[in-house]
Every structure is written in structure tokens, then in C-alpha cells.
Design brief:
Largest sheet: 5 strands, mixed
Radius of gyration: 30 Å
Strand content: 35-45%
Distance between the termini: 99 Å
Strand order of the largest sheet: 2-9-8-4-6
Oligomer: single chain
Structural class: alpha+beta
Number of helices: 2
Shape: flat
């Protein structure tokens, strides 16, 4: 292989790279922090979760769809629609509510799979859709005991002490000025 062939191959590779660089998509889903992908809730508990859709890689609006693939007996989409239009750089919240049945047994587990799909864009030629799944478990746990509230520590004495210190400082400053005259 001579130098000229290598230059041609590198040129073709760079041309293809430049051609497909316009198809880069940065579609992402930010999920709430669920430790070890297990959410513990007590029977009868209800909690709201917010996922955030974002696409910072496009220069045009994209359309995304939110679906519940598994766990629909405990999780519901709170938003009125499940289709979202995302403008470049925009962050769109997707709100869900999880409600554990009152009759749930401690240790009972549900698998939840949420799917966020980006549709191929129209009007820009070739485009590919993508899907991001958020998978976690919800486990019924014991209701935490209600602990008595500790009385709030008052900062009143701290403020009084600072006030007295300021007054003493002012007294000594005035006393020094009188001695000078």
C-alpha cells in the first residue's frame, strides 16, 4: 500500500465521518436518584417521581414518547399526554406517581420499566429513533417509626452574646477616644 492509497482511504473515512456527524443525537433521560435501583415504600404510600427528557445534540425539535412497559399496577403517568416535543437545549419533565396498595405485604416487589423513545426526525433526511429504558424495583417496606421531634435549639443566647460583645466594643472605643482629648 503506497502513500497515495493511504491518503485516499483517509479522505474517504473523513468524508464519511463528516457526512454522518450531523446524525449525532444527545437524547437523554435524567432519572431521580433511586439507591441500588430499589425504591422502598410502605403499604399505602404514594410518591411522585420526575424524569427529565433532554436533547442537546439536535438543531431542531424532536418528539419523544413515554411508556410504562412494566409495573402499571403501581405507577401512573401524571401528565395528560405521553408525547413530548423537545426543543434544542430544552429540558422537559415527565411526571409519574407510584402508589403502593394498602394491602401490600411487607417484602412484596414490583418491577418497573419505563421506556422513553425518540422518534426519527422528519424533514432532515435519514434519521434513527432511539429508546432509553429506566428499570428499577419497588419494594413494600415497613413504615418508619414516627420519632418525637427534638426541640429546636434557640439561637437567642448567641445573638444576645454578640449584641453584648458589640456594646462592650463600642464602650471601649469611646473610652479610648475620651482619654486622647
Amino acid at each position: 500500500m503506497n502513500f497515495k492509497e493511504i491518503k485516499i482511504k483517509i479522505g474517504i473515512f473523513l468524508g464519511i465521518l463528516i457526512l454522518f456527524s450531523g446524525m449525532v443525537s444527545a437524547f437523554s433521560v435524567s432519572a431521580p436518584n433511586i439507591e441500588n435501583d430499589i425504591l422502598f415504600l410502605y403499604p399505602g404510600a404514594e410518591v411522585d417521581l420526575k424524569f427529565v427528557l433532554q436533547d442537546s445534540g439536535e438543531s431542531f425539535d424532536i418528539t419523544a414518547k413515554a411508556d410504562i412497559l412494566q409495573g402499571s399496577e403501581i405507577i401512573k403517568l401524571v401528565d395528560r399526554k405521553n408525547i413530548y416535543t423537545i426543543s434544542p437545549g430544552e429540558k422537559i419533565p415527565v411526571n409519574y406517581r407510584i402508589k403502593i396498595p394498602e394491602t401490600a405485604v411487607i417484602g412484596q416487589e414490583w418491577s418497573v420499566v419505563l421506556s422513553f423513545s425518540k422518534a426519527g426526525s422528519s424533514g432532515t433526511g435519514l434519521s434513527f429513533g432511539s429508546t432509553i429504558d429506566q428499570i428499577f424495583k419497588v419494594t413494600a417496606g415497613e413504615k418508619p417509626p414516627i420519632l418525637p421531634e427534638e426541640p429546636k435549639k434557640s439561637l437567642t443566647w448567641f445573638y444576645v452574646l454578640i449584641g453584648v460583645g458589640i456594646l462592650v466594643a463600642i464602650f471601649f472605643i469611646k473610652l479610648k477616644r475620651k482619654k486622647r482629648f
